[in-house]
Amino acid sequence: MSERTNLPLVFDEPRGRRKPPRHLADLTPEERKERLAELGLPGFRAKQLSTHYFARLVDDPAEMTDLPATQRDELVAGLLPELMVPLRTMEADRGTTRKTLWKLFDGALVESVLMRYPDRATMCVSSQAGCGMACPFCATGQGGLQRNMSTAEIVEQVVAGARALTRGEVPGGPGRVSNVVFMGMGEPLANYKAVIGAVRRLTDPTPDGLGMSARGITVSTVGLVPRMLQLAEEGIPVTLALSLHAPDDELRNELVPINTRFSVAETVDAAWNYAKVTKRRVSIEYAMMRGINDHAWRADLLADVLRERGALPDDRRSRWGWVHVNLIPLNPTPGSKWTASDPADEREFVRRLEAKGIPTTVRDTRGREIDGACGQLAATEA
């Protein structure tokens, strides 16, 4: 692997912005007690506040009746400040897909999507307001990066979805969030510290966190190799999703500009390393674009690139069981030259990958009628 991967990764957000207010989701249980002590409030109340937030999913202070009325407002302001306000919620798929546009404390706009299926409920969350990766087919990438989101701002998207399910606001009756995918606005690994903090809050046992399984969480990346290597050593068995979109450097340099820094070979090597270290299968995300990256020969090349890494040690699955290709019918933005592949080309792409032993599925795309492409709703509002 090239020595370039040892270079520090810095994708600075614009300076001079105010920081989001500190929230209990930003803090460990001990730090929550310390925060209340700094404010002259009893530290033991931190666990009660955590229980209301993570276990009871309460957002109305009036329902926190175990807190003394004389201190309730101070306690809530100290550890449960308002982080975001919903500007608009749009529904599709008979109400089982809900896309929410949020306004953060400083006016930045982000999106989250709740998708309910018969066997699970998935939250797709944003990790940055905007994105600095500049992928030309992505609505978010065209707006540039505004700022990183805090750990609590990321977590709040999931908690808001959990509240909606618990309260029966989504067809299908009361439920719970079973899966979280970091595939909303932003490049998660460019906001590494906050994203890892959010993953830990989501997986911490209640009432310290939301009590989710790490195996239900997927973190995506366009290929920030040093951060992929770092994630492999975190000891959190999340699924890694690599947004590859092209198997050759010439095309990927155009579609995913970070590829000019970390090549296809380096990026796939880092993905293979993640699978080797964590024993977790990596998902290769591939947005199918008509006449751009959906050629049959590119399917063959993609399979060859993935097969080159061989099997993992002691892997009892198929030889290339370390990886799974997830083809994504492109959800185009208005006026864009980037459009979804012809279904026949998509089927041939799948056939060629499977013929070479690469497990492949086509993603169930939801929300086309509600500005489904990531960042599209925020761009329209802005």
UniProtKB/TrEMBL annotation:
Annotated active site: E111, C374
Binding-site residues for S-adenosyl-L-methionine, renumbered to this chain: G186, E187, S220, S243, L244, H245, N331
Enzyme category, top tier: transferase
Positions contributing to [4Fe-4S] cluster binding: C131, C135, C138
Cofactor(s) this protein cannot do without: [4Fe-4S] cluster
GO cellular component: cytoplasm
Catalytic activity: adenosine(2503) in 23S rRNA + 2 reduced [2Fe-2S]-[ferredoxin] + 2 S-adenosyl-L-methionine = 2-methyladenosine(2503) in 23S rRNA + 5'-deoxyadenosine + L-methionine + 2 oxidized [2Fe-2S]-[ferredoxin] + S-adenosyl-L-homocysteine; adenosine(37) in tRNA + 2 reduced [2Fe-2S]-[ferredoxin] + 2 S-adenosyl-L-methionine = 2-methyladenosine(37) in tRNA + 5'-deoxyadenosine + L-methionine + 2 oxidized [2Fe-2S]-[ferredoxin] + S-adenosyl-L-homocysteine
PROSITE patterns, alphabetized: RADICAL_SAM
Bound cofactor: record note: Binds 1 [4Fe-4S] cluster. The cluster is coordinated with 3 cysteines and an exchangeable S-adenosyl-L-methionine.
EC number: 2.1.1.192
Record-annotated Radical SAM core domain positions: 117-368
Keyword terms of this UniProt record: 4Fe-4S, Cytoplasm, Disulfide bond, Iron, Iron-sulfur, Metal-binding, Methyltransferase, rRNA processing, S-adenosyl-L-methionine, Transferase, tRNA processing
Gene Ontology molecular-function annotations: 4 iron, 4 sulfur cluster binding; metal ion binding; rRNA (adenine(2503)-C2-)-methyltransferase activity; rRNA binding; tRNA (adenine(37)-C2)-methyltransferase activity; tRNA binding
Chief location category: cytoplasm
Region feature Disordered, mapped onto this chain: 1-25
Localization: Cytoplasm
Annotated InterPro entries: Aldolase_TIM, Methyltransferase_A, RNA_MTrfase_RlmN, rRNA_lsu_MTrfase_RlmN/Cfr, rSAM, rSAM_sf
Entry keyword annotation includes Iron: yes
UniProt keyword annotation of RNA-binding present: no
PANTHER family: 23S RRNA METHYLTRANSFERASE, RADICAL SAM CORE DOMAIN-CONTAINING PROTEIN
Note: Reaction proceeds by a ping-pong mechanism involving intermediate methylation of a conserved cysteine residue.
Record-stated family: Belongs to the radical SAM superfamily. RlmN family.
Function noted in UniProt: Specifically methylates position 2 of adenine 2503 in 23S rRNA and position 2 of adenine 37 in tRNAs.
Name the record gives this protein: Probable dual-specificity RNA methyltransferase RlmN
